[in-house]
Design a protein that fits this description.
The complex is a heterodimer.
Chain A (H helix, E strand, L loop, with lengths): L3 E4 L2 E5 L4 E7 L6 E7 L5 E8 L4 E4 L2 E6 L4 E6 L8 E8 L6 E3 L3 E6 L1
Parallel strand pairs in A: 2-11
Antiparallel strand pairs in A: 1-3, 3-8, 4-5, 4-9, 6-7, 7-8, 9-10, 9-11
Chain B lengths: L4 E3 L2 E4 L5 E6 L6 E7 L6 E7 L2 E5 L7 E4 L6 E5 L8 E8 L10 E2 L3 E5 L1
Parallel strand pairs in B: 2-11
Antiparallel strand pairs in B: 1-3, 3-8, 4-5, 4-9, 5-6, 7-8, 9-10, 9-11
Classes of the chains: A mainly beta, B mainly beta.
Chain lengths: 112, 116
């Protein structure tokens, strides 16, 4: 059974810092991995999608990496801003399932 | 196309009442998913459809829950005899599943249910 874990559960940093969010999954037979952002009480916003054949994806200040063999992904946020404050969710698709399996998220607070 | 639409966005109901949520997927998408998210947790899979066929249901989907996707277009999720534990955000997603197996889900804004 696929399990997705995110560390840390919560993170508080001062504005301007670079930071890394971690995601690990137990079944490496995935088709893709997505990172989402969720603001309080809102739906999910897709940030980055990494196909299983890819090692990383970049969008602006965000960079996501994927090491499928070790079951790990990281989301790097450069020069954090207070507007980055949100919950960040990692999810994997594929393997033995036809659905996205989510982690419990990392709650990020960027202090001005 | 405006993406995945969900209605209502917020529903407040009394315990024991029935509620129904609607999801309109992206028009060319053949798969439709329902997820439930409680406070502080990641979304949990409930069920999914390929066209009009319901292919998988989670054990979280008790007999008070029923989902339909008539004609393979919009979907409804009905909860009968609501309980306070049903309070959650109900998320819908759709995708175009291909033969390769890769599948990218697009999520709606969600329907928040509060059971008093």
């Amino acid at each position: 059974k696929q399990e997705v874990t995110q560390i840390p559960a919560a993170l508080s940093v001062p504005e301007g810092e670079n930071l890394v969010l971690n995601c690990s999954f137990t079944d490496s037979a995935i088709y893709n991995l997505q990172w989402f952002r969720q603001d309080p009480g809102k739906g999910l916003t897709s940030l980055l999608l990494i196909q299983s054949s890819q090692r990383e994806q970049t969008s602006g200040r965000l960079n996501a990496s994927l090491d499928k063999s070790s079951g790990r992904s990281t989301l790097y946020i450069a020069a954090s801003q207070p507007g980055d404050s949100a919950t960040y969710l990692c999810a994997v698709y594929g393997g033995a399932t036809n659905k996205l399996i989510f982690g419990t998220g990392t709650l990020l607070a960027v202090q001005p | 196309d405006t993406g995945v639409s969900q209605d209502p966005r917020h529903k407040i109901t009394k315990r024991g009442q029935n509620v129904t949520f609607r999801c309109d997927p992206i028009s060319e998408h053949n798969r439709l998913y329902w997820y439930r998210q409680t406070l502080g947790q990641g979304p949990e899979f409930l069920t999914y459809f390929q066209n009009e066929a319901q292919l998988e249901k989670s054990r979280l989907l008790s007999d008070r829950f029923s989902a339909e996707r008539p004609k393979g277009s919009f979907s409804t999720l009905e909860i009968q005899r609501t309980e306070q534990g049903d309070s959650a955000m109900y998320l819908c997603a759709s995708s175009l599943a291909g033969l390769s197996g890769a599948n990218v889900l697009t999520f709606g804004a969600g329907s928040r249910l509060t059971v008093l």
